[in-house]
Write a structure and sequence with these properties.
Helix 1 runs parallel beside helix 2 (108-128). The protein is an alpha+beta fold and 155 residues long. The chain contains 2 helices and 8 strands, in the order E-E-E-E-E-H-E-H-E-E. The strands form 2 sheets. A 6-stranded mixed sheet has the order 1-2-3-6-4-5. It has a two-stranded antiparallel sheet with strand order 7-8. The termini are far apart. The protein is globular, with a radius of gyration of 15 Å. Helix content is 24%, strand content 40%. It has helices at 76-91, 108-128; strands spanning 8-14, 21-27, 33-40, 47-55, 62-70, 95-102, 136-142, 147-153.
Length: 155
């Protein structure tokens, strides 16, 4: 009858010292990815994002619906949005990411390094699952009211 779903655990890191970021990723046999992105000096839970595949309204292919639940005062989930959407579109699976990255007295350069390292962990995963032949470009568009994320496949 019903076979047991195998859950695989993957741990990927990028960066060093206080800028080290780790992605803990649980695969559910094609039924979704559950991730924890953490790092910096004080790993924590700063927010959670859920990405789910959906067809574009105009019929232009697939996109993702995103639900973002940040803790008050935390911005970790904005990075999680980019990464969840990337993973969702690349794997055609729902993705949940809980993120918490912190460096004391972080400069803009420090924050960009943590973001870059977080993106590198997802790039490592895509390479691991054989998606390295597909070049993914993430575009973060900010508006005054909200942050929206789009992912396009580069030519």
């Amino acid at each position: 009858k019903g076979g047991r779903t195998v859950i695989n655990h993957t741990e990927l890191t990028a960066g060093k010292g206080r800028f080290k970021v780790t992605l803990f990723l649980q695969e559910t046999g094609g039924h979704g990815l559950c991730c924890f992105l953490t790092g910096g000096e004080r790993p924590h839970v700063g927010g959670t994002v859920l990405a789910s595949l959906s067809e574009r309204v105009n019929g232009g292919g697939m996109t993702c619906n995103l639900w973002n639940i940040p803790l008050p005062g935390h911005k970790d989930s904005y990075l999680a949005e980019k990464l969840a959407k990337t993973l969702c579109l690349a794997t055609n699976q729902p993705v949940a990411i809980t993120a918490g990255l912190h460096v004391d007295n972080a400069s803009e350069e420090d924050i960009q390094l943590l973001v870059s390292n977080g993106c590198d962990t997802v790039a490592q995963y895509l390479q691991l699952i054989g998606k390295e032949g597909e070049v993914w470009k993430i575009i973060l568009e900010k508006t005054e009211e909200s942050s929206s994320v789009s992912l396009v496949q580069a030519a």
